[in-house]
Amino acid sequence: MEGVLNAARLAGNRILEIYGREFEVEYKGDDSPLTEADKESNDAIMTFLEADYPSVPVISEENRQIPYSERSGWGRFWLVDPLDGTKEFIKKNGEFTVNIALVENGRPVFGVVYRPVTDTLYLGVEGSGAWKISGYGSPEKITGGEHYLKMERVKVVASRSHASPEVEAFVDGMQQDGKKVDFLSAGSSLKLCLVAEGSADVYPRFGPTMEWDTGAAHAVVSAAGKQVLDMQTREPLRYNKRDLLNPFFIVE
């Protein structure tokens, strides 16, 4: 799987080439932004996956969306967000990532989250563990910390672009329980990775996300010993659903 890490880095380099100059922003049918960087990153990843894993299908945010009737029987597939955090990219705050996950039977078992601006890569492999790699340095094993409900002081991470009253209510509830709360803000799937590495303790998500937004980081979180749970059912998020929209979830 070393090639997947290299593909993420290559895609990140393509993104940075565009990040350093002027670029145009288009808007898709759902009003989400799209840039040349999304397309270039997707092309780099697809070229690699189609060459090295020709028999494994791909769901990518920037590809043609595949009908459920066609993909419902997929037991194994790649799940890609070539530029997670396009809004962060446009704002030029550096908090965007390249996300590549391998999903088996509805569960992400391998995930790479690459942050081009800092040359930081998070890797999660089911059954083996999770690592953070800075540049081409030695991988650093990461594990999430104690469960936030057992802590007196809790670091809550939330979206930089999607702050909500529900998150404020979540924080208020913990404060009423006597907990001290430190609030962290981050963009894209970096929020999940912060919980995976223990820099944050919990990430409640009360806004819309798609499967490609979370799949890779979900693999990192799980491999680091933490969970990504549906707010309602308290079950782990599932992938390749009929509707690729995620329910509200919590990373803990």
Describe the protein's architecture and organization.
This protein is an alpha+beta fold. The protein folds into 2 domains: 2-142, Fructose-1,6-Bisphosphatase, subunit A, domain 1 (Fructose-1,6-Bisphosphatase, Chain A, domain 1), CATH 3.30.540; 148-251, D-Maltodextrin-Binding Protein, domain 2 (3-Layer(aba) Sandwich). Helices cover 31% and strands 29% of the residues. It has helices spanning 2-19, 36-52, 68-71, 86-91, 165-176, 190-196, 211-223, and strands spanning 25-27, 33-35, 58-60, 76-84, 97-104, 107-115, 120-125, 129-134, 140-142, 153-159, 180-186, 203-205, 228-230, 249-251. The strands form 4 sheets. It has a 7-stranded mixed beta sheet with strand order 3-4-5-6-7-8-9, sandwiched between helices. The chain has a 3-stranded antiparallel beta sheet with strand order 12-14-13. A hairpin with a 4-residue loop joins strand 6 (107-115) and strand 7 (120-125). Helix 1 (2-19) packs antiparallel against helix 2 (36-52) and helix 6 (190-196) runs parallel beside helix 7 (211-223). It is globular and about 55 Å long.
